[in-house]
Design a protein that fits this description.
The structure holds 2 protein chains of 2 kinds. Chain A is an alpha+beta fold. Chain A folds into 2 domains: 14-50; 57-172, 2-Layer Sandwich (Muramoyl-pentapeptide Carboxypeptidase, domain 2). Chain A is 55% helix and 14% strand. Chain A has helices at residues 14-27, 31-49, 59-68, 71-82, 85-94, 99-113, 137-152, and strands at 117-123, 126-132, 159-162, 166-172. Chain A has a 4-stranded antiparallel sheet, covered by helices on one side. In chain A, strand 3 and strand 4 form a beta hairpin. In chain A, helix 1 packs across helix 2 (31-49) and helix 4 packs parallel to helix 7. Chain A is globular and about 50 Å long. A 3-stranded antiparallel sheet of chain B has the order 1-3-2. Chain B has one domain (2-6, 16-74): Alpha-Beta Plaits (2-Layer Sandwich), CATH 3.30.70.100. Chain B is built from 4 helices and 3 strands; from the N terminus they run H-E-H-H-E-E-H. Chain B is of the alpha+beta class. The radius of gyration of chain B is 13 Å and the shape is globular. Classes of the chains: A alpha+beta, B alpha+beta. The A-B interface holds A 1-2, 23, 27, 29, 33-34, 37-38, 40-41, 99-100, 103-104, 107, 110-112, 114, 117-124, 127, 130, 132, 173 and B 1-3, 5, 12-22, 24-25, 43, 45, 47-52, 54, 56, 59, 64, 68. Strand 1 of chain A pairs antiparallel with strand 1 of chain B.
Chain lengths: 174, 75
């Protein structure tokens, strides 16, 4: 979402500016908006993602790899990844590992990595997070074990439900 | 988002919803202004670089599934 903006001047590569202006015109937004969003993506995600050697396969390849994988191996990988990667990410970003920073990590994966669509409902009874995707049952299985291992690191056991295209996690209220 | 909402300091937490949808799946022209006409939606932010739209809403008035359905009808 939007936050406070400040004026700042930079010299940038001419071809990069040309690309930004063309894209801005195509999207019917200002070059200023686009540059701000590019820089925000870098500041909020890319600079941390490169620390964990992130790669970007196409959704077609990603889905194909998931479909071809052995479920037991997926679960094993999800547990290992979920107990280490989110912590490394959030410590680099916010300096602390807690429920809020881990939820922010899940939100970032929707915003910047397109691993699922994300929604969260918060009320005094607790928080419900829904992740909807098109990568099949093996991706839901991965997410369930990744999220479980992730929250175990802060002593939280969310209730989880899944289908072949969604994972829903429920966290109790404070 | 949860932290931001709790910082508002209300003794009783007000219901709050936030959703991130893919523009690749649900893209539409003038999406921001169309979403803002829906009751219960409080804020819309289209991110053209990340290719997503982020929507804040009041879950006592609308569900994220309803917003998704609305966007699907616009495709």
């Amino acid at each position: 979402m939007r936050s406070k903006t400040v004026p700042k001047s930079f010299r940038i590569d001419e071809s990069a500016l040309d690309a930004v202006e063309k894209e801005a015109a195509a999207q019917q937004v200002s070059a200023n908006t686009l540059v701000n969003q590019i820089l925000t993506q870098f500041s909020e995600f890319e600079r941390y993602a490169k620390k964990i050697s992130t790669v970007k396969p196409s959704s077609f390849v990603f889905r194909g790899l998931l479909d071809a994988a052995d479920v037991d191996k997926i679960i094993e990988l999800a547990k290992t990844a979920g107990s280490s990667i989110p912590q490394a990410f959030v410590v680099a970003k916010s300096g602390k590992v807690d429920i809020n920073s881990l939820l922010d990590h899940l939100r970032s994966l929707a915003l910047y990595a397109h691993l699922y669509e994300y929604s969260e409902n918060l009320d005094p009874r607790g928080e419900i997070v829904t992740m909807i995707h098109e990568f099949g049952l093996n991706w839901s299985i991965f997410l369930v074990h990744y999220v479980t291992a992730m929250f175990e690191q802060v002593g939280v056991s969310p209730k989880l439900e899944m289908s072949d295209r969604s994972v829903i996690l429920s966290l109790p209220g404070k | 988002m949860r932290e931001e909402h709790m910082k508002q300091g209300t003794a009783e937490l007000q219901p709050f919803g936030n959703a991130i949808f893919s523009l690749h799946t649900h893209g539409s022209s003038n999406l921001e202004s169309k979403l803002k006409t829906i009751q219960g939606i409080t804020e819309v932010y289209v991110n053209y670089v990340a290719d997503v739209v982020e929507v804040k809403f009041d879950p006592s008035k609308i569900r994220s599934e309803d917003i998704r359905d609305f966007m699907k009808k616009l495709e």
